[in-house]
Amino acid sequence: MALKEEFEEYAEKAKTLPENTTNENKLILYGLFKQATIGPVDTSRPGIFNMRDRAKWDAWKAVEGKSKEEAMSDYITKVKQLQEEAAANA
Questions:
Q1: Where in the numbering of this chain does the ACB domain appear (predicted)?
Q2: What integer is the mean pLDDT of 57-61?
Q3: Which residue from 2, 57, 3, 69 is spatially nearest to 30, judged by alpha carbons?
Q4: Quick one: CATH architecture of 1-89?
Q5: pLDDT band (50, 70, 90) for residue 90
Q6: Other beta carbons within 10 Å of 42
Q7: Nearest to residue 70, comparing CAs of 41, 21, 31, 44?
Q8: What is the reported pTM?
Q9: pLDDT at 83
Q10: How far is CA 10 from the centre of its chain?
Q11: Which terminus of the chain has fewer Cβ atoms in its 10 Å neighbourhood, N or C?
């Protein structure tokens, strides 16, 4: 299976992660997803009073140096890790 196809499959699987997935892990996935699909951050950082969007922007900015392929691979690995943790805690 090609990397892009596997990435798309795991992007769908990420939607089924448990509700108790931490915000930290959700932000990691968000940053990797944006880097994999769009590339480097292309917007300015949201203002201090917009904490949610600011955290998402920071998560994306944190992975800015990764190639789209690296981000896809890291995303797949992270979703697999979260799925395994969820299965172990079920």
A1: 3-88
A2: 97
A3: 57
A4: Up-down Bundle (1.20)
A5: confident
A6: 8
A7: 31
A8: 0.94
A9: 96
A10: 11
A11: C
**For residue 6, what are its two tokens?**
């596997």
- Residue 39: is its pLDDT beyond 90? yes
Show Cβ contacts of residue 59 under 8 Å, excluding neighbours closer than 6 positions: 27, 28, 30, 31
User: Can you read off the two tokens belonging to residue 58?
Assistant: 């920071």
End-to-end CA distance of the chain: 29
Hey, what are 22's tokens? Answer: 């931490």
Distance CA(61)–CA(39), nearest Å, equals 10
> Tokens for 7?
């990435």
Domain ranges, ordered by start, for the chain: 1-89
Answer yes or no: are the C-beta atoms of 73 and 3 closer than 8 Å: yes
Task: Measure the CA–CA gap between 32 and 65, rounded to whole angstroms.
Answer: 11
CA distance 88 to 58: 30
